[in-house]
Amino acid sequence: MADNKEVAQNMSNESDVDPSLVQKNPVYELVFLLIVGIAVFIAFISALGYHPVSARAPLVVMAPLILLMAVHGFRLFRATDKAYFKDFFDGIIKRKNTEQVKILLFVGWMLILCGLIYVGGHYIGSALFMFILLYFYGKEKLKTSLLLSIIATIVLYCLFEMVFSIELYRGLIYRYFMGYDVF
């Protein structure tokens, strides 16, 4: 693993920002704060639809959390030099910074996983996600990809359903075929 100075040097190639300061770039923290803030806000909106007794705990936790995140984000944004933002977005758009591209790919893959789980449920979504990563991204053989995806899904099912007695989310497709009005 590379040390901080080497990482900072790699991150700031062709950059206007001093390489010694790149490792302290607060834009990464702001982006992370934004992603977590959006997730917490969506959960907060969702909790507003709960029964008042059930909604009390999530709302008591999330309301101050949203406020703290907003205040911290605002303070961090004001204290951040605008050259950091330019460097951050130039690194993404011009692909100067491979670390940023890896982060964005990871976030994209996680969003795809969430979408697959939402539509197909944990078992189908996880199996499809593993297959896609193994076959298309990992360049594994079709047989290997299918076999690993199926075995991992069976292990997930046995672990959660039989050992822990936890029924995982079945997905929109399952709910639709069971007669729920999901669309």
TrEMBL record:
This protein is called what? DUF1468 domain-containing protein
Source domain of life is Bacteria
The transmembrane residues are 30-51, 57-77, 103-136, 148-169
Q: Where is the signal peptide?
A: none
**What lineage does the source organism belong to?**
Bacteria, Bacillati, Bacillota, Bacilli, Bacillales
The DUF1468 domain sits at 66-168
Q: Identify the InterPro entries for this entry.
A: DUF1468
Q: Name one Pfam family in it.
A: TctB
Task: Enumerate the UniProt keywords alphabetically.
Answer: Membrane, Transmembrane, Transmembrane helix
